[in-house]
Specification:
Number of helices of chain B: 14
Structural class of chain A: mainly alpha
Number of domains of chain B: 1
Shape of chain A: globular
Largest sheet of chain B: none
Number of strands of chain B: 0
Number of helices of chain A: 11
Number of domains of chain A: 1
Order of helices and strands of chain B: HHHHHHHHHHHHHH
GO biological process, one term (chain B): transmembrane transport
Subcellular location (chain B): Cell membrane
Distance between the termini of chain B: 49 Å
Number of strands of chain A: 2
CATH architecture of chain B: Orthogonal Bundle
InterPro entries (chain B): MetI-like, MetI-like_sf
Oligomer: heterodimer
Distance between the termini of chain A: 46 Å
Family (chain B): Belongs to the binding-protein-dependent transport system permease family.
Strand order of the largest sheet of chain A: 1-2
Pfam families (chain B): BPD_transp_1
Chain lengths: ~300, ~280
């Protein structure tokens, strides 16, 4: 390059500074001042912002709803990880092993809900669960199981489990594609060798496919956990708003309620700090647990 | 031998059943929603999951004229276009500098951008709310577009640096020899050569912005600024009183059609872009 040092720095500044400024103002600053806000009691007007030290954190530990929101988040994490991984794994292996002619059809169809708006998914599924008109109760009645029909989203027991199915429905395609990408890189010779040794297909799955696919499995699980802890509240907000009687509140929807509906902005920020800590700790612990020796055959 | 073959065919058939069932589980609700948009309310109550009696567009006309869906579509288009353009303007030069120029702290800056993909943004939304208020950008579609663009910066930078990394260095070097300024190299050489990445990023961002709900919920307030998601959510909340189910289905259909069209054209690009974005995360 023949450009002088000064020109180089000017060009670098041109490339980097405007972007970084906006990133700093709209991402870094809000994150940091979220931490700072958590030490204030604040209902929104500048005049009544009051420093309260760790009062919000004391309140957090004494708030009976908080443990429930954490539990609900983890319930969604566990059920989503299990549901998505089992189904996505089955679909990926079936499509790849059987070399189905219609494989592109499944890829295209299963992935589509991943790019649907959460609003559309949430409202659609609210209607599917509708006690009078919805598909679920109609289907149960059609097969003679009237006694199993219930107001799914209106029931304190069933509302939270009812949110799992739409989340799996919406997420599965992406993880199926990630696993299929991994399976495509496994050499056929491993399966041939295993077959010569007399391994059944089930054994081949556990001894060859799973270990060699572990990097993709690990990334998929971590991704489901991160997106659930950081984003499960969106579908909650649309489908139940946290109700009935707080039975579906997750950390994020409770934050929204505290900050933007009840104007406890300081306390809302404290819940935000909790979400940050819990999701970072969960991901770090999980990444350690999922660590395996790299397999080589 | 014959028996084994038969068993094999049966097994192939049996293993397919869950795949077929899941396809139905994905497609049926979507078709059901589209069919519902042609039904009158009476039909929805009488026959919630059958075919409509006739295909009239009354629900669409109602949604468009009486339920603010026209404004919703316009506002969503505005934030989608502005947000996507701004995201590109911000991400392309930075990606180039991060990928191709040597400077102190380049890796650190890259990691800073990328790690923002993992951080829960919800903590930042409270201060952002007041920041936008102080800037006079609250309840403002331009403000929302800026917030959208910045929120997709990490993803955009991640994908663009990957694409730019595959462009041969010789092209820039010989252009620089010929006395081309770095600005022109960026504009005339790098931008066209990374067009594939730029298109992927733009499609992904556009889908994201068109679908976005929660930031719009927090940062917009007046009904004339509602994006499509908010307008539909509003109809949905009122539907329990107004029973405007047909209108609701029609507006959901309006929201999903652009996504279906984009997916029909760019299906490979979209699924690839998303899978790669996830693998990094």
């Amino acid at each position: 390059m023949v450009t002088t040092k000064k020109q180089k720095y000017l060009f670098l500044a041109f490339c980097l500074v405007p972007t970084f400024l906006l990133f700093a103002v709209f991402t870094l600053y809000p994150m940091i001042s979220g931490l700072y806000f958590s030490f204030f009691s604040w209902s929104g007007a500048a005049a009544n912002r009051e420093f309260v030290g760790i009062d919000n954190y004391i309140r957090l530990f004494n708030d009976g709803i908080i443990p429930r929101t954490i539990l609900h988040d983890y319930f969604l994490v566990v059920t989503k990880v299990l549901g998505i991984m089992v189904l996505a794994m089955y679909f990926a292996v079936a499509i790849m092993q059987l070399k189905l002619k219609e494989a592109p059809f499944y890829r295209i169809i299963f992935f589509f809900p991943n790019i649907m708006s959460v609003v559309v998914i949430g409202i659609l599924w609210t209607f599917i669960y509708n006690p009078n008109l919805g598909l679920v109760n109609s289907a149960l009645e059609a097969v003679g199981l009237e006694n199993l029909t219930r107001p799914w989203l209106g029931s304190e027991t069933w509302a939270l489990p009812s949110l799992v199915l739409p989340s799996i429905w919406a997420g599965i395609g992406l993880f199926m594609l990630m696993l299929m990408g991994g399976i495509a890189t496994i050499s056929k010779s491993y399966y041939e060798a295993a077959e010569l040794d007399g391994a059944t297909e089930w054994q081949q799955f556990w001894k060859v496919t799973v270990p060699l696919l572990w990097p993709q499995i690990k990334v998929s699980i971590l991704y489901i956990v991160i997106t659930t802890l950081n984003g499960s509240f969106i579908i909650v907000q649309i489908m139940t708003g946290g109700g009935p009687n707080n039975s579906t509140h997750v950390m994020g929807s409770y934050l929204y309620q505290q900050a933007f509906e009840q104007y406890n902005f300081g306390y809302g920020a404290t819940i935000g700090v909790m979400i940050l800590v819990i999701s970072l700790v969960t991901v770090l612990v999980l990444a350690r647990l999922l660590k395996r020796e790299k397999v080589q055959y | 031998m014959e028996g084994k073959k038969k068993g094999h065919i049966l097994k192939r058939f049996g293993l397919r059943i869950p795949l077929v069932l899941w396809s139905l589980a994905v497609l049926y609700p979507i078709f059901w929603m589209m069919l519902g948009s042609f039904k009158t309310n009476a039909e929805i109550y009488a026959n919630p999951w059958g075919m409509p009696e006739s295909f009239g567009f009354q629900n669409f006309i109602d949604a468009w004229n009486n339920y603010n869906i026209d404004l919703g579509v316009f506002n969503s288009l505005l934030v989608t276009v502005l947000g996507s353009l701004l995201a590109l303007m911000l991400a392309v030069p930075t990606s180039y500098a991060l990928e191709r120029m040597e400077f102190k702290g380049s890796t650190m800056l890259f990691n800073l951008y990328i790690s923002a993909m993992m951080i829960p943004m919800v903590l930042g939304w409270i201060p952002l709310f007041f920041l936008l208020m102080n800037f006079g950008m609250l309840d403002n579609l331009f403000g929302l577009s800026v917030v959208y663009a910045v929120s997709q910066l990490p993803f955009s930078i991640f994908v663009l640096t990957t694409f730019m990394g595959s462009i041969p260095k010789e092209l820039e070097e010989s252009a620089a020899m010929d006395g081309m300024s770095p600005y022109r190299i960026l504009w005339k050489i790098i931008t066209p050569l990374s067009m594939s990445g730029i298109i992927t990023v733009t499609i992904m961002n556009a889908i994201q912005f068109w679908n976005e709900y929660f930031m719009a919920l927090i940062f917009l307030q007046s009904r004339e600024n509602y994006t499509l998601g908010l307008a539909i959510d509003f109809i949905s909340r009122e539907a329990s009183y107004t029973n405007a189910w047909g209108t609701l289905f029609a507006s959901l259909t309006i929201a999903i059609i652009p996504i279906i069209i984009l997916y029909a054209i760019f299906q490979r690009r979209i699924s690839k872009g998303m899978t790669e974005g996830a693998i990094k995360g």
